[in-house]
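Handoff note, outgoing to incoming analyst
You'll be picking up this chain. Sequence as last confirmed:
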Amino acid sequence: MRRFVVEADGGSRGNPGPAGYGAVVLDPVTGETLAERAEFIGVATNNVAEYRGLIAGLKAARELDPDAEVRVRMDSKLVVEQMSGRWKIKHPGMRPLAAEAATILPRGQVTYEWIPRERNKHADRLANEAMDAGRTGTPWQPRSAPTPPAPPSGPPGDAAKGAAAARAALASGRLTGAAAPAPAGAGTVAGTAGDTTDVRAARSAGGAGRTPGAPAAGLRAARSAAAAPEAGPRAAAEPDGTPGAPAADLRAARSAATAPEAGTLFDEAEALAPGGSAPATAAGLLVPAGTRAAEAGAAAAPAVGGQAQEAPAGTGWGGPDMGAPATFVLLRHGETALTPQKRFSGSGGSDPELSPAGRRQALAVAEALAARGTVQAVVTSPLRRCRETAQAVADRLGLSVTVEEGLRETDFGAWEGLTFAEVRERFPDDLQAWLDSSKAAPTGGGESFAAVTRRVSATRDRLLTAYAGRTVLLVTHVTPVKTLVRLALGAPPESLFKMELSAASLSAVAYYADGNASLRLLNDTSHLR
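Most recent structure output, in case you need it:
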């Protein structure tokens, strides 16, 4: 009986957003590629794309040999565990996909194995190629077979011919170990093979008309890192993800590239290129408003040998323009009577109204947002204190208010209305468990932070779809704001206890089309002073 290995992956640049899958059938002994499949599937979630990749891979294996034993390897823990029967399939949209995958080959012929992302690069590349092709409106095409290297022109060990060939390659720029001499003003990069390869890949990303699938290892790595989920490792709260592993260096570059200048906190991060209005990018990332294109290019160029390098004229250093991000301006509601007393006040309590101080805060933040002039929609938690704050802002901006149930505060159960000290005195064990684990719920059937994370994540994704490319004011509470910030940073759950968030404070997160997020503001109360 023949044996195949199927590796599959899928991704969504936005989750949901433009999505695609990739799958490859391999010979388990030789590693030979027997079949490749990839397709752009329109707007979908990561999980849908991953299941579609699995289905395509199994069908390709069946076409090769319907009686073969198949070992499926994927970096999606969700798909592997569900198809292995160890996890229940709770999402109604996943059930028909899992059912289809289960019927392609007899159950006894297929086994599943989870592998880390770095071992799923082939399928990941195919998925990204499919998404790239979809962006240009062209169908995915498999790569052509590589041209074999020319045989050596002399006998083995012919040092003279080898040295001559190396000199010729160096002069023509084909040698990757060091950069060839360049015309004056063109900008050169001298260094290791990795330095030169990455720079060429980035230049390819910036050039117009790049052929989909053109070999650029550095570009693929950057794309994979840019598509990594902002929530970090896949966990119960965030089961789906996109191809590619998080890259700390890329995150740092993104943070630097998107950090706003004073007075541009919620503006589109665009810079005018010389002679036009196209947004300038730095390593494929939008740069702060007011930054000149030349400065952005200089800032993005890598330092080699301790010196910043210029990009060649006419190529640009950026990747494709991803358009304006969706920006969530996060406003914590104004004070209630419980706020100064620091009492637990969630969605399971008395639903207090704004105090006189809270109403003044709402008016102050309304004036500040009107002065900025960038908010295009107002969405609020259903709780009274948020609706009153949102209405004050919306009236000032001339906008309507949309209520979103997912933005409500945590249900603190029996702790509602109590201070921290009172909870510690009455429920010491429950409080300690809550502090130790995000999965622990407050006494009396309250809501755990893990449950809040799932709710807020789903709400975030819905709002990103509804308000793509727009600036939206979300009027909500301490826990939802901190959760959105935590997920944007990829910070652990315990970081919720390490953020200060004042009443009527403003924070802001920008979400880009590649699935990444940038924290732009946290706990700004300047409008209250």
